[in-house]
Write a structure and sequence with these properties.
The chain is an alpha+beta fold and about 180 residues long. The chain is about 45% helix and about 25% strand.
Length: about 180
């Protein structure tokens, strides 16, 4: 079929292709305009190394941030949540990436029974004392257990590597936590 000497199906196909490319470019530009300031805010948080990864899955914002040495994990964690806009109605899933090694994972696994018992019984002073005593025997360069209102923050360091673990202050119904997925 021809109109004005042109083949209509070819013209329609070309127009559809051009419009598809334009819509895709608009999508990319809009996405970049939203995520670039967010990545910049995350990168400005003390302790963040490298480029944060951000993906928006509709109602949920997934953020992966690699941390170097941080003096106060709860402060850094809350600063990251605030930078990601957690208080603005967006559900933020924050993944802390660290430089954990098999040795640090084994050390954390040996500390889990103490952490789980404290979470189960609510005897946090005893848990802190037992954590300190056990951590001293592990040969770590440094370690820290801090308690927040709803979470506990564990930091282990050895030979320039760091392990950060953030756990709920109470055990979920169903028993022990033990594991080191973070």
């Amino acid at each position: 079929m021809r109109a004005y000497g042109l083949r209509v199906p070819i013209v329609l196909a070309a127009a559809a292709a051009v419009l598809s490319v334009l819509f895709f470019l608009q999508f990319l530009l809009q996405r970049q305009a939203v995520s670039l300031p967010l990545v910049t805010r995350l990168r400005d948080v003390r302790g963040v190394v490298g480029q944060p990864a951000v993906s928006n899955n509709g109602s949920e914002l997934d953020v992966a941030v690699h941390l170097g040495s941080v003096p106060d994990l709860p402060v850094t964690y809350n600063a990251l949540l605030q930078a990601a806009g957690a208080g603005s109605g967006t559900h933020v899933v924050l993944q802390i990436l660290d430089t954990r090694t098999p040795a640090l994972i084994a050390d954390l696994d040996s500390l889990y029974p103490i952490l789980d018992q404290g979470r189960q019984t609510g005897e946090f002073v005893t848990m802190d004392q037992q954590f300190d005593a056990k951590a001293k025997t592990l040969g770590l360069d440094s370690y820290q257990l801090l308690l927040g209102q709803t979470q506990m923050y564990v930091t282990l360091a050895l030979d320039g590597h760091y392990l950060y673990e953030i756990l709920p202050l109470t055990l979920p119904s169903g028993g022990a936590g033990g594991g080191s997925a973070s």
